[in-house]
Write a structure and sequence with these properties.
binds zinc ion, TIM Barrel, binds adenine, alpha/beta, 17 helices
Length: 346
């Protein structure tokens, strides 16, 4: 069989996307649980999974919307019981994205989903942090850890979680808001995020993934977020687009996630280029790579293969991610210098 001819420009862009250093700013560590690891941890911990095989579990990853995914995502977490489980999960992700030339990651974890199963917060944070520390030492990947509140639960539950987090605040870099969006607007968590901000923490929130532009407005006005996670539905509100552009807000966009959760009908209709053209500072991220069919480079590949992406777009997307990272000015300058070198060589 003759190989499919790929235009050389597409091939060159794919190689550049692979080779360039990248920051990932939107990654749920529990969403990187590959079926193979889920079965290994299930066996190790004596947990029963409701699927007969890795293939059967993977075959269940067909979703019509966010909620269908979340139902499977929260069930999958049942294999995470011990410190070393959180370590193994995080280490597997870091090893995988090292191949993608990811040099910095800002990851979410969902403590309430584990507390509910009786896993202490210290166990969760210790396992994740130990792997992040090894990631820095052995792979050169720097990281930030973001505690994400589940918005389908009450504000009281978020406050209880924040209280439990007090002994570990030095191991956290920011707070986020995720889970079922519609019916759970950002304003529901106004006071808990005010408290996080008082503590000097950065804030980000999922907004406009399935929810309306009003939720993005609330994330900005009420929560006073530093970044918006997803933000797709912002495009329906011209004044909001103008505001996001004027404020230079970073959007952590997740193309394969959007496709898998039917936020977009096809990759060819993904709005990421429209976002850039309208002055929005979009970035490319994997969200829950084990469930959505790929890690960061797979997301870049999907965009390159289905949209008229140029070298300049690629540069802007990667640049925005380093610029939006919660790192020092020195670290930022270092990463941007490396990015420039990768483009100068290309
Ligand atoms: N939790 C994990 N992935 C999520 C997503 N894409 N949206 C909302 N909550 C999530
Ligand atoms: Zn997400």
């Amino acid at each position: 069989m003759t190989p499919r001819r790929v235009p050389s420009t597409t091939e060159a862009l794919l190689q550049l996307a692979q080779r360039m250093p990248k920051a990932e700013l939107h990654l749920h560590i529990e969403g990187s649980l590959e079926p193979e690891l889920a079965f290994r941890l299930a066996e190790r911990n004596g947990v029963r999974l409701n699927y007969p095989s890795v293939e059967a579990l993977r075959a269940a990853y067909a979703f019509k919307n966010l909620q269908e995914f979340l139902d499977i995502y929260y069930t999958g977490m049942s294999v995470l019981l011990k410190e070393e489980d959180f370590y193994d999960l995080t280490w597997a992700y870091l090893l995988r994205v090292h191949q993608d030339n990811v040099v910095h990651v800002e990851m979410f974890f969902d403590p309430q989903a584990h507390l509910k199963r009786g896993i202490p917060l210290g166990v969760q944070i210790s396992g994740i942090r130990r792997a992040l520390s090894d990631g820095k030492k052995q792979l050169g990947i720097s990281s930030r850890l973001i505690l994400s509140f589940l918005r389908h639960l009450s504000e009281e539950s978020a406050f209880e979680t924040l209280e439990l987090a007090q002994p570990f605040l030095d191991q956290l870099d920011g707070f986020g808001l995720d889970s079922s969006e519609i019916g759970h607007p950002p304003e529901k968590f106004a006071r808990v995020f005010a408290k996080c901000r008082e503590g000097g923490f950065r804030i980000t929130a999922h907004a406009g993934e399935e929810g309306p532009p009003a939720y993005v407005h609330q994330a900005l006005d009420v929560l006073q977020v530093d970044r918006i996670d997803h933000g797709n539905h912002s495009l329906e509100d011209a004044a909001l687009v103008q505001r996001l552009a004027d404020e230079g807000k970073i959007l952590t966009v997740c193309p394969l996630s959007n496709l898998k959760l039917c936020v977009v009908k096809s990759m060819a209709q993904h709005p990421i280029l429209t976002m850039l053209e309208q002055g929005l500072r979009a970035t490319v991220n994997s969200d829950d790579p084990a469930y959505f069919g790929g890690y960061v480079n797979d997301n870049y590949r999907a965009l390159i293969e289905h949209l008229p992406l140029t070298r300049e777009h690629l540069y802007d997307l990667a640049h925005n991610a380093f610029d939006g990272a919660w790192v020092s000015a020195e670290e930022k300058a270092h990463h941007l210098n490396e990015l420039n070198r990768a483009f100068a060589r290309a």
